[in-house]
Write a structure and sequence with these properties.
With about 80 residues, this protein is mainly α. It is built from three helices and no strands. It is elongated, with a radius of gyration of 14 Å.
């Protein structure tokens, strides 16, 4: 594994660490207050576009990281919709 792949994994870990507290808060609170679903949808579109670019470039570390991010975003959106 080279330095570029390690940087991709570090970035993926950072994204996951960003999403975990958000998902935890959404999961344990009965009401969704202060979460803007449109911001999450915009983030989903951006991460998905980046993932498509990485597929085109065959950067599989980045594709994997973004796939995890997409799953976290979709889970967040579903939880927000269920609680609102």
């Amino acid at each position: 594994m080279d330095t570029v792949d390690l940087l991709g994994l570090l970035g993926a870990a950072g994204l996951i660490l960003f999403y975990l507290p958000q998902l935890w808060t959404l999961w344990r609170t009965p009401r969704v207050v202060g979460f803007n679903i449109y911001a999450w949808v915009a983030l989903l579109v951006g991460v998905s576009a980046l993932m498509l670019q990485l597929v085109y470039l065959q950067a599989w570390t980045g594709v994997t990281a973004n796939a995890i991010a997409v799953l976290a975003i979709v889970a967040s959106i579903v939880l927000m919709r269920r609680k609102s």
